Amino acid sequence: MDELKFGSKNKRGDFTPKEPLQIAPYFEFPPNPIKLLKFLKGYLWPWNLLFMAVAALFYFYLTPSPQTTKTLAVGWIAFILARNAVLVFIIYGLLELRLYIKRAQGNRFKFHGQFPADRPSDVFMFKSQNVDNIIRSFVSGVPIWTAWEVFGLHTYANGWGPWTTFAEHPFWLLTFAFFLPFWHEFHFYCIHRLIHVPVLYKYIHSVHHNSINPSPWSSLSMHPVEHLLYWSDSLIHLVLPSHPLLFLYGLQITGTGAVVGHIGFDKIEVGSEGAIPTHAYAHYLHHKYFEVNYADGTTALDKLFGTWHDGSKEAHAQMDARYAKKIARVNNKS
Ligand SMILES: [Zn+2]
Ligand SMILES: [Zn+2]
Fold this sequence. Notes:
mainly alpha, two-stranded antiparallel ribbon, two-stranded antiparallel sheet, 4 strands, binds zinc ion
């Protein structure tokens, strides 16, 4: 596929998409229906539909019954831990295998022209970004995700919280499900800003930012404290009337969904002319420049607070001006 129809390459081989990133158009006035429909398509396809499908598969076939989860026991908790680990291994592993190990499309559409494996670095365990990222994902990421899931299923089984059914409140549950990705992004924006406070960044969030050139395994490579905060968005299900299917969908958006920003490619080629959009560019720019795009543009919070970078030269100039101001402020203080 000719990537140059969709963007440009610099001499280091870094790909930049031609179209600047768009924030959600629902804040525009007057509303633009075409733009809204286009946004809606990207909001659902491909990721959130996949996460909904996985949540349904889990809910109907791979989650123990409330009679079982009513009592905490090693057996069913170990089962959930294993099924989450297998899911992450399959989805992250397949993306990594195709794009980074087999390098099936070379560096076409790759934001960073190089591959992390070609540049071993001391910041990682065993000098390998992949090995370091995999250890952090499975030693603390998936277990902490599972702990949140066990907590939710156990509270549901015991009737703690305002749980409801599709028979009782179908319209509310569908609306809630529709807005769950929005809620996830809002929550992520808030905790993400928090862990960029210098002292928290130094001890906690810098672990995630070690991957300047992220690959799928970087997605859940975080400090355990960040893992704990990251899935705390699931507490919404104990505040608003919810259903376990929505609870599992939310965990998918957060857990498996972490991969979305870390694919490192703008498109995944399918066959000779097809391609799946990844929606990875906004978060890639966060890994590259640190203080932009704390979220992905669904909530428009970055735009509101002046940290939105859409990949254009203008946005870059704005970012540089903001950094220059910040440096001047620090210098004036000292
Ligand atoms: Zn990241
Ligand atoms: Zn960050």
